[in-house]
């Protein structure tokens, strides 16, 4: 569905940002701050991601930042 397509785009956007800036630690810190400020749930249930999320969950974005290699 459309939410799934948008999540893929959100993952691509994160990869682009990481490639462009090369600042993995800053990316990871920003994602952790979002979670700590309760602006997004760190590990939402899979059904909620499928139904409501337009971007990958924070835990997936943090993992991508930690393992990203340009």
SS summary, helix count: 4
Low-confidence stretches: none
Task: Please summarize the sheet with the most strands.
Answer: none
The oligomeric state is single chain
* β-strand number: 0
So what's the overall shape? globular
Structural class: mainly alpha
Which range best describes the helical content: under 10%, 10-25%, 25-40%, 40-55%, 55-70% or over 70%? over 70%
Task: State the order of secondary-structure elements, H for helix, E for strand.
Answer: HHHH
Strand content: under 5%
Q: Write down the overall mean pLDDT.
A: 84
- What gyration radius follows from the Cα positions, in whole Å? 12 Å
N-to-C span: 29 Å
Descriptive account of the structure:
The protein is an all-alpha fold and 70 residues long. It is 71% helix and 0% strand. It is built from 4 helices and no strands. It has helices spanning 2-21, 24-36, 46-52, 58-67. The mean pLDDT is 84.
Short description:
Helices cover 71% and strands 0% of the residues. The protein has helices spanning 2-21, 24-36, 46-52, 58-67.
State the main characteristics:
70 residues, mainly alpha, 71% helix, globular
Write the layout of secondary structure elements.
Layout lengths: L1 H20 L2 H13 L9 H7 L5 H10 L3
